[in-house]
Amino acid sequence: QLRLVESGGGLIQAGDSLRLSCAASGRAIKDYGMGWFRQAPGKERDFVAAISYTGGHTAYADSVKGRFTISRDNAENTVYLAMTRLKPEDTASYYCAAIFAPNYSTGYNRPPAYNYWGQGTQVTVSA
Predict the structure, then answer these.
(1) How far is 101 from 30, CA to CA, in rounded Å?
(2) Of 55, 89, 108, 115, which residue has the fewest beta carbons closer than 10 angstroms?
(3) Percent helix, strand, coil in the chain (nearest 5)?
(4) How far apart are CA 117 and CA 99, in angstroms?
C-alpha cells in the first residue's frame, strides 16, 4: 500500500504564496503519476495539477495555470505543489493522489482514475 500524507496548508491572505508537500511511504512513488486535487465545501473534487512518473509531463487546471507549480522528488518520495498569487477562490481542502503510471496519460485529471489518496490539507485564503 502507498500511504500519502499532505502538509503545508494554512490560513493566508490573498496574494500570498504557499507550498504543499505530499510525503509518500510504503512504496516508491517513482512508479506512479501524481496529482493534486481540491474540494471546497459542497462542491466536487476538482483537478488542480498532475505530474507524470518521470516528471516529464505536467498538467494544470486553467484556474491555476501560471500560478501553481507541481514538482516531485522521487529520491525523497515527495511531491510538491507551489502556489503563488493565491485567491479566495483557491480556498479548499487539497488532496494528493497517486495513479499507476500506465494509466496516467488517460486519467491524470480524473479522480476515479487514481489509486491512492491522502487525507487532505486545508488551505484558506482570506480576502
Answers:
(1) 9
(2) 89
(3) 15, 50, 40
(4) 9
